[in-house]
User: Fold this.
Amino acid sequence: MIAGLVFDLGFTSNPDFWIFVVFFFIISFYFGYFWRSRESRVKWLIEQANLKTQQILELEKVNKEMLDKNRELYTKELELTMANKHLQSLEDAKSKFISVTTHQLRTPLAAIKWTLDMATKGQLGTVNDEQKKFLGKGLESTNRVISIVNDLLKIDSIDEEHTRYEFHPADLVKLTEDVLFEFHNQSEIKKIRLNFVRPEASIPYLDIDASKIRIALENLVDNAIKYTIEGGEVAVIISDRRLNSAEGAIEVSVSDSGIGIPAGETSRVFQKFFRAGNAIQKEPDGSGLGLFIARDIIEKHGGAIWFKNRLNGQGTIFAFTLPLHQKKV
Amino acid sequence: MDKKKVFIVEDDEFLRSLNAKKLENEGYIVAVAVDGQEAIDNIPKELPNLIFLDLLLPKVNGFDVLAKIKADPTTKDIPVVVFSNLGQREDIEKARGLGAIDFLVKANFTLDDVVAKIKEILK
Assistant:
């Protein structure tokens, strides 16, 4: 109808009119387009805003959960710290108890030992053979008690089930030197030569629990000296197994010129409390724990321990390996 | 030949008297202290050739006595043998660190061993 009107009014012959019409359609087309796209853009914006709001709400929810978990963790950490402090004070109390007790036990034990020793040697007056014999037995028993007290100290520090092993890089050569220093009195008194053969080339630090390895080595050296007669020799040799095998390990051997291990008893040597017949004869005092403890320590380090009889002459060689590094747990 | 003087610091009366008696029998002059304070007071006066030092002592403990002796120029060169019934690693190392030349656990040695040790040190 409007079109009819427009036609009748005679505009149609005017070219400007048609330009205007085309313009009008173009403009209204674009206008419509922009209007619709504005609508959809607004719609799109609103949708996006909604999405974002949802995301923010979710993030807030997660945040709250994390905060709650954090609070839980913090409480647990506090609990752990308190438990740790408690354990530490128990450990300290235990150590103190052990050192005070051993001191208190050792003092009267030393007194008994010295008295019996002097009496047996006739330094407190003449003794006949019979008296000497009995005093000697008393002295032996005393020495056995002293030896047990000494071992108790060592056991306490390595209660197998509960003890913590802490591995740190350590100088095995220096550790061995220190251990041998501890024994120089004993070996001098027994006139036994103590030799230390260091590795040909310097070895790196090993990941070990130094205080435990110390105990293991002490036990081996102690045995070597105990079971070797006067004038004998004990040698400690450290060698680098990497030089002639694929193993990343260092080997420590302790050899003695002593009484050896009887054939029938070799399989029981590392058993708890086991002492070979000839060992008991040579040295009545001994707990039978030294090798048991040493093996436990070496195995906890991932090493191996073994012994063999010496080929030329008498004596035994005990040896153990220690890997350079501990596997990370 | 001059008689050598040995100073014993030991709080247990019986051990102290046994030790002193033994050393006197062997021809040494013996001076004693029953606690850490007596040791600090008398060692500079007695100026012995050798000191046997217990660690667990009343009043002043053995480690402090050792530190004091080694800090005093008149006494720092006297050899000190720690003679104790403690014997844990830390004790031995601490004593060595403070200047003790040796560490003996009383219960592990006889008095004859002690005499042999003295002879060796004072050679």
User: Anything to note?
Assistant: Chain A touches chain B at residues 99, 102-103, 106-107, 109-111, 113-115, 117-118, 121, 123, 146, 149-150, 153, 182, 185, 188-189, 211, 214 (CB under 8 Å). Chain A has a mean pLDDT of 86. Strands of chain A lie at 168-170, 193-197, 206-208, 233-240, 249-256, 305-309, 316-323. The radius of gyration of chain A is 43 Å.
